Amino acid sequence: MMKTTDRTFFLLVLLGTTLLHVVIAVATPVSGDEAYYWDCSRHLDWTYFDQPPLVIWAMIPSRAILGETNLAVRAPAILASLLIALALLPVVRRLGGDYREAGLAYLLLHGTPLVFLGASYASTDIVMVAAYTLATAAAMAVADGELRGWWGFGLAIGLGFLAKFPMVLALAVIGAAVIWGEGKRHLSRATPYLAALLAFVCTTPVWIWAAQNNWDNITFQLEGRHQSAGFTLKYLGEYLGANLVLFSPPLLIALAVAWWLARRRTEPAWRVAVVSAVTPFAFFALLALRSRMSPHWGAPGLVVAMAMLVLLTFRFKRGLLVSGVVVGGLVVAMVLAIIAAPMELLEIQWTYSGRPGRVSTSSAAAMIGNEEIAAEVMKRLRPGEIMASSSYTNVHLLSFLTGGALETRLANVNNGLHGLASLYWHEPDDLIGRNFLFIAHDRRGDMHVPLSKIFGSTVEKAPIEIRRDGRVIRTIRVIRCSNLLEPDPAFTRLD
Fold it and tell me: Which residue has the higher pLDDT, 404 or 251?
């Protein structure tokens, strides 16, 4: 009877959290990065310049079913969140729990702002977290002596790599299964090596595209994504501080305590769990000693860490679990209250990511008025003109908001190396002689200089202004560019 009740509780948690994710997905506007993935899904390819293809591919059937909607863009993330819960169950069982503990762990995950909100948004991270959790469950099976676990691990790491490249960190998990578990006995069998072959086969789309495109995606991941600043504690402090916010301070402390207690467990599955929980966070903390790291990159280990927390506190330290849920819930409520507040009233001047005002009144306001900008661009666009921008988020978000009716191009002017996938979708010489309506944020400086070098003429027009309560909160510059003379460097691929 108790098991039936526990199973019902687990299913209710899955149902409730999934409905929550759907509501958030429908009610909140699509971000620039999500629109980027959406636009990529309209251009089917082996992979994409700065992103593996799995999340993008998954949007193709969801768009076919749900249309060009917020929910279609975010449906793969919501399904991945559900998969995390299902993968959590075998992890918990290997650690000695069952439906009740799995349901509590998944519920407790939603006490972190990162999962509460992040599970409803399209991202490569949420899919990789699901694959990482599955890989951990498979590695636990290997540690317990089950040969078939190798097949699950090979499939999980291969598909996870197609979601996000840091999935390779799961190799540490299978390493733990070999070192401390029964996995070492399997190394004389063919299965581990065939599973490795399966993993490689899953990743072949990345290598096919790389071979066809001068290995640009691999070069970007190894050299272009992170610029080393030399040894510094500044970025590590940012990384740790941001983790406190995203994971909620009380839960992060509780997780640290759980990890400390779990270290004393000698069972192979527990040792695998400890390695799974610690590896992503520790890896990016080490990298943060030289480069700026996004705090959510350590999230793959959070799921298993939460399972350990529940199993160690539910039975022995119930008060710690209860307090973690309560305080975590309060933190979530505070985050939601801030998000729901009028953006223009916020006086947040957090300089995370090293760009003053990145999370500020002005940048918060940049989330407002995109529909108005899209409508105004459509109104100003002349027949045959193409909308262009040096911001990849502008390009893809405005395209999404017009249902794909707006023809857009990314002009790689002062844009760096992010968001360049669209440069590989078109032949640049086909643009010669075309006219463009170029838009740019007012903070991007003088765009005439680079644009005048490749166009016959450039004329600045009246800006697009987004007003709230009688004041301008957002200004978009508009430059009419006629007769493209030379597509290089703005519209060409990397050398």
Answer: 404
Same domain, 389 and 250: no
**């002017």: which residue's tokens?**
413
Number of compact structural domains in the chain: 2
d(CA 295, CA 103): 25
Total residue length of the chain: 495
The residue to which tokens 């939603």 are assigned? 110
60 lies in the same domain as 208 = yes
- For residues 142 and 149, is the Cβ–Cβ distance under 8 A? yes
253 and 300 belong to one structural domain? yes
Q: What's residue 132's pLDDT?
A: 97
pLDDT tens by residue, 102-151: 998 898 888 777 777 778 889 888 999 999 999 999 999 999 999 999 99
Cα gap 450→461, rounded to integer Å: 17
Reference 343, options 243, 477, 466, 478; nearest CA is: 466
Q: Which domain holds residue 399?
A: 364-484
Tokens of 260: 């400390």
238 close to 311: Cβ distance less than 8 angstroms:
no
Whether residues 179 and 84 share a domain: the answer is yes
Torsion of CA 266, 271, 273, 274, to 10 degrees: 100
Q: Do 301 and 422 share a domain, yes or no?
A: no
Would you say residue 492 lies in a domain?
no
Q: Which residue, among 398, 479, 396, 345, has the nearest Cα to 34 in the 3D structure?
A: 396
